[in-house]
Structure formats: C-alpha cells, structure tokens
Amino acid sequence: VSIVSAEGGLREASCSKVCAGTTGRSSSAWLQYNAYMVYIYVDISACGFVATPTVTTALEESAVLSDTGSTVYSASTTSFYIILHKPSGVTTENAESWYLNIEWVAVGYTC
Fold first, then answer.
1. 14 sits in which H/E element
2. Which neighbouring-strand residues pair with 69?
3. DSSP letters of 36-75?
4. Which is nearest to 106 in space by CA: 46, 27, 65?
5. CB-based contacts of 90: which residues, under 8 Å, 6+ apart?
6. What is the pLDDT along the chain (111 residues), one digit of tens a residue?
7. How far is residue 34 CA from its own chain's centroid?
C-alpha cells in the first residue's frame, strides 16, 4: 500500500493499511434521523488505525434511488457515520426493504 498524501502528514510505509467491509444487506442497522434522512454507524475499530483514515463508501441497494445522497460524517480511528438523504422521504423500514447497505474501504496508518 502506498499512501501519497495524508491528514497530519505521511508516516512509515510499513504502517499503511487497507481495511474494508460492509454493513450487510440484511443486517444494516439504519436509524431514523428525520423524515428525509436515515443514518448508520459503522464500526472500524478492528482495523487498528492510530490516525483517522481516508474512508471511501458506496451505497448498495436493491431499489433505484437516483435522488439520494450519502455522506461520511465524524470519521475517526474507530468509526464513522453515513447519513442518507432522500428528498421525498425515507424511513428505516424503507432502508431495510431496499436492502440498503454500505460497502466501505478505509486507508490509513496502524503505527
């Protein structure tokens, strides 16, 4: 793994790590934020990062949700949140029936 830029500066290359996962198609624990948004907490503590990694996500779905947006919030060494916004409204029940889940990749340092 080669990290070419990082918040807080570059570190020893041998400390670089790529860690990836999914919240799961049938096991994502979406929570209601408001009538137009749901969110999910993603635990990345098993990755062992010592500085906040760069997090890239993709929303996987079984429905066609062309008018949605999702954003990473509060990324840290151990977790991040995804908030999903749908202008016409979304509920946790929708999220479950649409099999919404987050595929994620985090790149950072472990020492």
1. none
2. 85
3. TEEEEEEE-GGG--SSPPEEEEEEE-SS--TT-EEEEES-
4. 46
5. 36, 37, 38, 68, 84
6. 899 999 889 999 999 999 999 999 888 999 999 999 999 999 999 999 999 999 999 998 887 666 777 889 999 999 999 999 888 899 999 999 999 999 999 999 999
7. 19
Joined tokens for residue 62: 């079984």
Residue type at position 40: I
Structure token digits, residue 107: 């790149």
In contact, 72 and 57? CB cutoff 8 Å: yes
* C-alpha span between 80 and 3 (Å, rounded): 20
